[in-house]
Predict the 3D structure of the following.
Amino acid sequence: MFGSSFTWVESDFTFQTDDWGGGANSFLSTQDAIDPGNSYLRKEININGGGGLKSKMIVRRPVDSTVIGSDPWLGNFNAKGIQSVELDFNNWSADEPVYLRLALSNVTNPMISSGTWWVSTTYATFSPGSGWGGASFNILETEMQRVGDFNGGFGQDSFIDTLSDIKGFRFIASSTGNSALGDEFSGAIGMDNVRLISSIPEPSRFAVIMGLLATVSLLRRRRR
C-alpha cells in the first residue's frame, strides 16, 4: 500500500513509561515480557472492582498543554507523513476480550466538545489470556470514522484538517468503534514496541540521506 516507510518515533519502554498513561496507573514490568528481562508498559485496570472511570481500557498520550507541543507522538501528521502505527499487545484478563482500536483527535479529551475524534474501523482482537501479538492501524480516512464526543456531539473538522493538529492519541478497547471513550474492562494489559510509521525518515536519518544525495550530486558534477 505504501512505499518506503520509516519509524518516526518508538516507545520500547526500556527505561521509562515515555509519557503513556490514562485511566489506571501505568508502570514498567518484566513479568511475562516478550523477551525475559525486557520491560514493557503494564496497566492493571479495575482488578479489585470499584474502578469508576478508571475501568475503561484506554492508553493515551499526556493531555498537559505544556508538553503537547513538544510531544513527538502529536502535532502535524500531514507534515510528518504519518501513515500508520504498530505495537505489540497482551491481554491477561481472565474473561474479557479487547477489541483494540486507534483514536485520534485535534483535542486532548472526548470530554471537550470543540474538536473532532476519529476511531479506526479496523481492530485487533485479543482474547482473554491472549499472549503477545501484534496490531497495526493505517491512518487513512477510509479506515477511520468520525465519532461523537462525550456529550454525543460530532466535530466538523475534515480528516486532513484533524491530522494537521493531533492533540489526542489513544489506544482503546471498543467493540463498536463508535466512541473514543473505550469499553469498561477488568484485567491487566501490556504494550510494547509502539511505533509511529512515516513516509519521511526521522530527522537524523533524513540528514544522512540528504548528505549522501549531496555527495552523489557533487561527484556527478566533477565527472562532467
User: Anything to note?
Assistant: The chain has one domain: 6-223. The domain at 6-223 is CATH 2.60.120.260 (Jelly Rolls). Helices lie at 65-68, 77-80, 159-163, 203-223. Residues 75 and 166 are 5 Å apart (CA to CA).
